[in-house]
């Protein structure tokens, strides 16, 4: 199984020819110059306004980069194969070089502040592309928020908990998300998901994820006595909320799998984008739960 997937990914990467790529600076914060890479289909017409995948990479808020090969190949795929504008962003890696990292010795307050600043960076990137929609040729009503691991936490908190994390929410009033694509993500509090902000979501998660909880559980499964003890609501809780609100979701559950499910599911991207085509572009309501067992 592993060999088959690896061969598939090699063939997948080889099939991606160079896309039209442009890099923009969307914000400067202290020593951090935050950029985004925009991949545009080669055959785009001047009058086209295309849907967008706005992607946030993972890495525990300490490592990773917008043009890491998997993240880059995903947004290239979105542009080449799906006729999207594919965008991969940088953001502040606030846990980089810290003694506690983002584990159980990192305090709850530090974790919440890290989540908050990640949300703000993501919202600033989204605001930038909305303000430059004509130049970038994007349809601002078709923005899909996407991320893996830490990036998935960032985008899910931005989509569903904007009011909690952002003090000046009115500055982002023109930013509307049409969907979410999360690989092993969670929110701080799923009670913030309402009929008003619920959007079609693709959720991938392993039931025994040891870092980002599958259901309602402590982040990194820290003991209550640890400074980093904070409860999060993972994909299971998010899917239940969306089901209650009759909002579309595609929930891919891998029994007994751990945090490796945060990897981008290249072998199933056609399924992912077909879901968004049907729910976001064609306004269908679909609720699908796929249960697999780790091999």
Automatic annotation (TrEMBL):
Pfam families: COesterase. This is Lipase/esterase, putative. The keyword Oxidoreductase does not apply. InterPro entries: AB_hydrolase_fold, CarbesteraseB, GDXG_lipolytic_enzyme. Keywords: Hydrolase, Signal. SUPFAM superfamilies: alpha/beta-Hydrolases. Residues 1-18 form the signal peptide. One of its GO terms (molecular function) is hydrolase activity. The keyword Signal applies. Residues 29-153 form the Carboxylesterase type B domain. Transmembrane segments: none annotated. It comes from the Bacteria.
């Amino acid at each position: 199984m592993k060999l088959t997937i690896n061969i598939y990914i090699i063939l997948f990467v080889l099939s991606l020819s160079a896309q039209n790529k442009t890099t923009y600076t969307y914000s400067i914060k202290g020593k951090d110059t935050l950029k985004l890479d925009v991949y545009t289909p080669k055959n785009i017409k001047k009058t086209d306004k295309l849907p967008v995948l706005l992607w946030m990479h993972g890495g525990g808020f300490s490592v990773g980069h917008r043009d890491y090969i998997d993240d880059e190949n995903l947004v290239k795929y979105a542009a080449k194969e799906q006729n999207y504008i594919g965008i991969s962003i940088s953001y502040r890696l606030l846990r980089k070089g810290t003694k506690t990292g983002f584990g159980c010795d990192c305090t709850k307050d530090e974790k919440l502040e890290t989540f908050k600043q990640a949300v703000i960076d993501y919202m600033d990137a989204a605001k930038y592309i909305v303000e430059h929609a004509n130049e970038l040729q994007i349809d601002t009503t078709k923005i899909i928020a996407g991320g893996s691991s830490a990036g998935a936490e960032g985008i899910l908190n931005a989509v569903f908990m904007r009011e909690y994390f952002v003090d000046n929410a009115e500055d982002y009033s023109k930013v509307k998300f049409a969907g979410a694509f999360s690989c092993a993500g969670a929110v701080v509090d799923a009670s913030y998901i309402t009929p008003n902000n619920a959007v079609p979501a693709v959720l991938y998660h392993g039931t025994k994820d040891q870092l980002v909880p599958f259901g309602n559980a402590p982040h990194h499964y820290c003991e209550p006595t640890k400074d980093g003890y904070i409860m999060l609501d993972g994909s299971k809780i998010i899917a239940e909320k969306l089901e209650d609100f009759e909002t579309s979701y595609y929930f891919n559950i891998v029994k007994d799998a751990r945090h490796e499910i945060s990897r981008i599911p290249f072998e199933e991207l056609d399924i992912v984008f077909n879901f968004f085509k049907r729910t976001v572009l064609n306004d269908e309501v679909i609720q699908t739960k796929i249960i697999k067992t780790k091999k």
